[in-house]
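Appendix B, example 12.
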Amino acid sequence: MPALNKAQIELPTGTLDLVIDGIIDLDSYCGFAARANPKRGFLIVSKVLGRHLPASPTEMRGTMDALANKLPGDLIGPAVILGMAETATALGQGVFAAYQKAHPFKDIIYLQSSRQIVEGAELISCFEEGHSHATTHLIQVGDRALRDTVRAARTLVIVDDECSTGRTYVAVAKAMLEAMPNLESIVTCCITDWSGGHYIDDMPRRTLPVSLISGSMTWSAGEAPTSVALASGSNVAGRAPKNGMKSRSGLTKPEQATRPEIEVKFGERMLVLGEGEHSYEALLVAEEVERKGGVAAVQCITRSPALLGWAMETKSCFSDSYGSGAPCFLYNVLKHQPDRIVIVAEQLASQAEEARTALQELGSPISVDIVLCSYAKGE
């Protein structure tokens, strides 16, 4: 029998009891916080995802590579790797990039779910993530060739950052069946899986679970503070910019934006901020910063609402640049102790001004720059 490791986390919204398979340094992978969401009171806060906490590009890329290495090398093609919005969009594309590099002759494409409408793309599926602050996920393809590949696909790999119950995996798989009538097998892929595998029997096709950490959890909800009511507009879709990233409507290879080169002083500590689903390019920028001698970390402006405390030391409010009206947030902006912040954006809005205001409120008027990214068709 494998050794078991246990943890109990007391949050303002309840108590989380974890049983971890094997002896794992859980603290190196994640922290915990309380959600500002009456539907689920806990949040597992990854330290290697580049979302709520600063993550080094080396750790992020290493996590992506490790997950890709755990996928079967003999995936039956055509295969679709599907990254989950918004938290796992960089993770999903990174897993796709690593798997494609290791298996260059595989017939495989990348899709992601999205909360932005892509003009001209075909909506092939949608599903609801019941516990989320933004429940509706859109799955879109940009052209007929990608649509044909999806219809012909025999394997689906669903990439998410974390699995609590597995119900989201079930919802995704069932929603994709009509769009993927030839589907034979599914791989669920995440950093931490706390489901105990109980969802597997509910999956519509044979399913292989893959994760870096696995175990089980018990959540005992407390009396949630009244402030956790979700803001109106949290589930409203925005609109992707015309020259926005193409991963929202399908990729045959990893994408990279057209953008200005980043100027870096040797030893400069730089926090690179992605924005919502636009997060893979933030990793690429951070990798460029490190190649030039800087000390980079990645985080994201996000729709995810959380309460202060535990892993969330600070919380700053932002507008949604995609026009949905949904509230957005940035957590722990000073944890990397940056000399400079660079926001990696698909379109110019009030991001830089709001970041400067947030820093002033925290008593740290750090320099803020914004890098505008453009993606040509087919990238």
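The chain has two domains: 4-42+56-227, 239-372. DSSP finds six helices and 20 strands in the chain.
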